[in-house]
Automatic annotation (TrEMBL):
This is MAGE domain-containing protein. Signal peptide: none annotated. Residues 71-266 form the MAGE domain. Residues 13-22, 36-59, 313-331 have a biased composition (Acidic residues). InterPro entries: MAGE, MAGE_WH1, MAGE_WH2, MHD_dom. Residues 1-63, 301-342 are annotated as: Disordered. It comes from Coleophoma crateriformis. GO terms for cellular component: nucleus.
Length: 342
């Protein structure tokens, strides 16, 4: 009996072993493609990420909408701190160093959003005028040409009837009263410089501010500190020239001062100061002092705004043309000729 039972158990154990081998081989077969699947999955994920990045750069709807929102927030934040919106910051914060075509599309869509929803638009900042002789000589040596606009600021496009303190109150950076005082002071300083031919010696500006009691207007802040603040924000800038043993310091209107205040603000300030006692030829005097033709300031600004838009369009076209275009694929006949030559 024991021998028979042993003979019968042997095939059962063999069958169990064969079944285990089959199961193991099946498991092994199932496990073999797993690494390949994971590799394929990683490659697919990487490819999807690249495709998504390319789609965002090339102007995908979702990606471009997000870029426009980022651009609007960036423009608002820069204007709140009176910081220029530079192209370098735009590429880093909005476009992730994308190409020029993406910049042009996002910039145009951002302008539409700013104009239709916020009543503002981005305008290019002009470059500083070169007043010193050495700066003019250096510019001639380097053959400096007009470069593309590198910085912008926000300006209001609301009609004059809506530019009232009720609709456009002063910002609450510190307090509305302090902000309104600061706006009034830098408007006065810019007007004094512009009406003196865009060159005002330092001692004359100090005398004007002393007569206006500027120290009392700015509270605890000293006049020198306020002037440095205006210079840092681009409203004014000074040049220092050594003429023998004498140091000559002169003040000029900065890029932000020309764009934000401009001739319209200067004319409005002068007209408000004269009031009802303004002479009949006041407009001609203002135009003569500002070096303008006898045109209304609105016409001059309208023409300047149109020129700025045309310049932006030309810059966008030139940047797009500067990008290398892919070579066209050869036609079938050209391919056969090349193959025969090979």
């Amino acid at each position: 009996m024991p021998s028979g039972s042993r003979k019968r158990r042997a095939p059962v154990e063999a069958e169990d072993e064969s079944e285990e081998e089959v199961q193991n081989t099946q498991k092994a077969r199932r496990r073999v493609p797993e690494p390949a699947e994971s590799e394929d999955g990683e490659e697919d994920d990487a490819q999807d990420a690249e495709d998504a990045a390319d789609a965002d750069m090339d102007g995908n709807e979702n990606g471009q909408d997000q870029a426009v929102k980022k651009f609007v927030r960036l423009a608002m934040a820069c204007e709140f701190g009176r910081v220029p919106i530079t192209r370098t910051v735009i590429r880093e914060k909005v476009l992730s160093n994308s190409n020029a075509r993406a910049f042009r599309r996002v910039f145009e869509d951002t302008q539409v959003q700013l104009r239709t929803k916020f009543g503002m638009e981005m305008v290019p900042l002009p470059s500083r005028d070169k007043h010193l002789l050495r700066d003019k000589i250096n510019a001639q040596k380097t053959n400096a040409k007009s470069k593309s606009t590198q910085s912008y600021i926000l300006t209001s496009i609301l009609p004059k009837a809506y530019r009232t303190p009720t609709i456009m109150p002063p910002s609450t950076v510190e307090s509305p009263a302090a902000e309104a005082t600061y706006i009034g002071l830098y408007t006065v300083v810019i007007s004094l410089i512009a009406l003196n031919g865009d060159v005002l010696p330092d001692h004359k500006l100090a005398r004007y501010l002393e007569r206006l009691n500027a120290d009392q207007m700015m509270g605890n802040e000293k006049t020198d500190f306020v002037l440095k603040k205006m210079e840092r924000q681009g409203y004014i800038f000074k040049t220092t020239d050594n003429q023998g043993d004498e140091q000559v310091i002169e003040w000029h209107v900065g890029p932000r001062g020309k764009t934000e205040v401009g001739n319209r603000g200067i004319k409005g300030l002068v007209t408000e100061v004269y009031g009802q006692n303004a002479p009949q030829d006041l407009d001609k005097r203002i135009h003569s002092s500002l070096g303008m033709e006898v045109l209304t300031i609105e016409e001059v600004e309208r023409a300047a705004r149109q020129n700025n838009r045309e310049d932006q369009a030309e810059q966008g076209e030139s940047e797009a043309e500067s990008e290398p275009e892919p070579e066209p694929e050869p036609e079938p006949e050209q391919r056969t000729r090349r193959n025969r030559r090979g």
